[in-house]
Amino acid sequence: MNRPSAKLTKQGIRAVAARAGVSTASVSRALNNPDAVSPSLRARIAQAIEAVGYIPHAPARILSSRRSRTLGAIVPTIDNTMFARGIASLQKYLSSVGYMLFLTTSGYDLDVELQQARNLIGRGVDGLVLRGDCHHEGLRKLLADNAVPFINVGIYQPDRPYPCVGTNNEAAAHRAAGHVIELGHRRIGIVSALQRNNDRAGARVAGFRRALAENGLELPPEWHVEVPYTLDDAREAARHLLNLKNRPTAVVCGNDVIAYGVLLEAERSGFSVPRDLSVVGFDDLDWSRHLRPSLTTIHVPTDETWQRAGEYLVRSLAGEQTIMHREIDFSLVVRESTAPPPAILK
Amino acid sequence: MNRPSAKLTKQGIRAVAARAGVSTASVSRALNNPDAVSPSLRARIAQAIEAVGYIPHAPARILSSRRSRTLGAIVPTIDNTMFARGIASLQKYLSSVGYMLFLTTSGYDLDVELQQARNLIGRGVDGLVLRGDCHHEGLRKLLADNAVPFINVGIYQPDRPYPCVGTNNEAAAHRAAGHVIELGHRRIGIVSALQRNNDRAGARVAGFRRALAENGLELPPEWHVEVPYTLDDAREAARHLLNLKNRPTAVVCGNDVIAYGVLLEAERSGFSVPRDLSVVGFDDLDWSRHLRPSLTTIHVPTDETWQRAGEYLVRSLAGEQTIMHREIDFSLVVRESTAPPPAILK
DNA sequence: GCGCATTCTGTAAACGGTTACATCCTAAGC
DNA sequence: GCTTAGGATGTAACCGTTTACAGAATGCGC
């Protein structure tokens, strides 16, 4: 490291300063707070920056200023349209306000999530975007100890003392189940996503169960299946339900991918949707309206949700007061995959 | 946090050193090169780290060591299954070797890509993963000036003096077209992705055209449609082709999403696939085998491709000699969506 | 022409690590 | 027993910025 003081100002802000004949402080000011330097200097500095091809060194900047204008996000997986869209939306918003995003994935593993959080904090992020409120017990302490603001996204829990933004999954699932109940169904099954480490999936199951209970309907254990996030698993679950002697006339699904699997399997098994079976999805992915039959589902404004999450943190960091719990409205989109049950089974 | 007894050692590595009664150098060594310190010291330091809740400050580390163990990646969009999977694979590999990934998106805009590259370089990334070889003319100079190694992923160009890893898109498209030609089709259309700023799409069109030319087949301009990456656009393109008085008997698509749109529209318009129309996709997404009819397509090993890209950079950075141009094999997967043309049109 | 309030700039001390080099210790070689 | 090689540890200079603080320049009223 010890270098004989041969040639100073080799690169960086000092090279720019030397070239423009000013101090490093002025260059820094011209960059971070242009109004603080005279127009003439600003021009000279801008030209020097151009000439030298200067790129500010973010780590040095972060080290010195203790702010990174970077947010971290930890999602279970990027290979899921809902998260991919959400991240894209968040990233777009952040770059529009001069922030960057550091993205990591946890694979639905709470220990990994905690480790990633530590990682991101060490990276100097100004705030953290988390998926849901199902975290490692040490995570909140970690965030508090390091004074890192955060927000839970994709859920709505107004009773918690920390921020969140998202739709009320319980209410949405309740609405989805209510839809088929209103159509006259009494025998309703559910194919949910894995509830383990996924409070979103859990809330949906809860809302579904509440709707059934409120209408005095039973849910035999064999009518509730949990599956991972693949078409194959969803099809297998559908096969299970359709082969039951005592099969449901409607199936509410934990998300659209699962619903798609159920549609495919129903068709393959010779059942006609919605004549023999009604299917409801959840998320309203792009292609859900293109399916045949098109899918009745719950529309969730993903883009808005994630952008709001970014807004919350950016505003908080700017010292503004903002809404801590923001609910994003869902809506039921009725399409072709649901209809009244066959009269004979009513 | 700590007492107002404003002395030294407020936090960071100095606090750990003080607590363990050693120098900061030893703590740093214990962290970066454990073998260099005695086991007893190592244990004392580990305990102190735990007690203080120390998290190494990455920016300071990067600043000081001039290495970040972080790679940057710039993709057009994250909201595309192929990229999402690739990024996930890359990220998984990198974390397995102690690296992190800084991900940004360019939205198919070369200027934005250049800006993102500048951004990432300023961030201190050790290397850069880029999509394809269609970049801003200033990008390579930027990378060279800053001595940042990079690799183009998703294409195969052994004649270039810089590294790449991917499938030969031209050859793959040639194979796809060859398949329907072998089936007896003579009237073949193509629905490609937008070629602008997308050399992958361009190479596929080129391979398709070569196959036609080699077989003495014509490609009327109206049989070649370019569409953005949405189902709606693909359906519209299909509508266009199917409504032609002089319509093709087979359609080769730039990717599976487009093929899916074509299938949907064909069905909606009363054409039966593959009886009236053969359809070939490209990418072999998860659900392509589930479609009805299941989709004949080109299988591309995305996961392997992106992992190899990471391997190349990590190895290069470690000083190892590695293969500069790596070809990833594609394969034609024949399913239900292709068949010989109707006899009458042969 | 002078004092004073305002800008505008420059100086230099952090920020939290790494690492070249110096120093200290221990144990083996003679 | 004395040297010395070599490993373990400490010291302190640096990495490239930001930002108090101080100093210089400018404009203004009198």
TrEMBL record, chains A, B:
Residues 13-65 form the HTH lacI-type domain. It comes from the Bacteria. PROSITE patterns: HTH_LACI_2. SMART domains: HTH_LACI (SM00354). Keywords: DNA-binding, Transcription, Transcription regulation. One of its GO terms (molecular function) is transcription cis-regulatory region binding. It holds the Pfam family LacI. This is Transcriptional regulator, LacI family. It comes from Bradyrhizobium shewense.
